[in-house]
Amino acid sequence: MARLDDVEFSTFMEGVRERNPHEPEFVQAVQDVAEDIFEFIKDKQAYQSAQILRRIAEPDRVVSFRVTWEDDNGEVQVNRGYRVQNNNAIGPYKGGLRFHPSVNESVLKFLAFEQTFKNALTGLPMGGGKGGANFNPKGKSDREVMRFCQSFMTELFRHIGADVDVPAGDIGVGAREIGYMFGQYKRITNHFTGVLTGKGLEYGGSMIRPEATGYGTVYFLENMLKHQGRGLEGMRAVISGSGNVATHAAEKLIHLGAKPVTLSDSGGFIHDPEGLTLEKVQWVKSHKTHRRGRISEYAEEFKGATFHPGETPWSVPCDVALPCATQNELLGADARTLVANGCIAVSEGANMPCDLEAAHYFRGAKTMFGPGKAANAGGVAVSGLEMSQNSSRRSWKEPELQLMLREIMDDIHDRCLAYGQQLGGHVDYVKGANIAGFKKVADAMLAFGVV
Ligand code: NDP
Ligand code: 2IT
């Protein structure tokens, strides 16, 4: 983490903090990138004088709006919706929608900023955006979720479009919510276009989009291990989360001969020392999606498993760790515990799950560390393929898409190597991802002049 010079870096970060008060997640995400970019642009006058990093760290636009809806008791409810359009230098804004009570401008600005680099790394023409609302889908009926989604889209529709901004899912937004939102978009505009991704297969969705993020996170992990002459076979894996990303990561780990032993949710984690099986993962998927259940019930269903309320899984000894729940869920102390217990590789399925201290620790300890913007890019990559299929009005078969996802994850690994390879063979994937993502967006911005 050498820097151009500490004074200039500190002045830059001071400015980011001043312009974005009360936005700790956004400041954190910018710092993570700036630490590497200051060093990279040290001898590159064009990027410096055009103020490229300063410009990427200022969203093109932040839209915030009221979402009014009626609950099942006929009471009026009010939430706040957002779309952050961070940067469209290399393609239409693209990124998920998150429905969670913790959603605020800081969280969505950090996610849209990260998305800009992630999308560049995929090699596909997509800019960076993110949106969502402080709506809590937990405990809501289907009809309440439908009414919320319709009201949300009644404002969002004017800000998005197949060549403008293409949202998808994220925490709290899955196939059900995308269906309701797509239905409302079509009803308002009368346009059947690829304005959202993660759609159902019947109405323009892509095969393997639900699996893509978790599978891709495991492919990235496998690539990091392979690069050091190792494999996933027999590796004990600790996973957090039990949603879309976590369950598909567990599934792919099992396909590749590894042994996932934990999952979690906001209530705590389950430890299954015998390891999850495909049947157990299927049970979790169905339990979470159809019954909207809690992970604690896993320990009642499967003998030998234990539930640890209020705890994260990082104290369970493992070879590899995959944080797949949410931001800042793995702290400096957790990183030290993981490494002390023998963990050799971390692949971030979630966005920014490791705080700065944890990320610095892994980098310093030379743990193989795949940052979210590289490791979890498989989801948005297949979203990009869904956009291609929609605009060409055809759909590809599953084996072709599986191959494309694999190739894209391999290419992302190569892009990280190009800028992250260190003397002695260690790879700094954070540096590699930050610089490779930055360079593509920056070069496009230079071509446009001062805008
Ligand atoms: P889901 O809504 O399917 O699952 C989220 C999981 O994380 C749930 O188990 C949830 O538990 C847990 N979780 C959420 N918030 C918290 C919290 N504050 N504390 C503890 N646990 C929490 O979301 P996804 O699996 O889609 O997303 C997980 C992560 O992956 C997010 O960081 C997302 O941004 C990232 N991601 C997602 C992609 C996608 O394609 N879906 C693509 C790339 C990244 P509970 O049910 O208790 O809330
Ligand atoms: O964080 C992410 O990359 C996502 N939530 C997926 C975004 C997308 O457009 O598929």
Describe this structure in words.
This protein is 48% helix and 15% strand. It is built from 17 helices and 13 strands. The strands form three sheets. The protein has a five-stranded mixed β-sheet with strand order 1-2-4-3-5. Strands 7-6-11-12-13 form a five-stranded parallel β-sheet, with helices on both faces. It has helices at residues 6-19, 24-40, 45-49, 52-56, 105-121, 142-156, 175-189, 209-227, 244-255, 278-289, 296-301, 332-340, 356-364, 372-375, 378-391, 398-420, 429-448; strands at residues 61-70, 76-87, 93-99, 127-133, 165-168, 236-240, 259-260, 262-265, 268-271, 306-309, 320-323, 345-347, 368-370. The chain folds into three domains: 4-56, no CATH class; 61-191, Rossmann fold; 210-375, NAD(P)-binding Rossmann-like Domain (Rossmann fold), CATH 3.40.50.720. The chain is α/β, with parallel strands linked by helices. Helix 2 packs parallel to helix 5 (105-121) and helix 2 packs across helix 17 (429-448). The protein binds NADPH dihydro-nicotinamide-adenine-dinucleotide phosphate (NDP) and (2Z)-2-iminopentanedioic acid. NADPH dihydro-nicotinamide-adenine-dinucleotide phosphate binds next to helix 9.
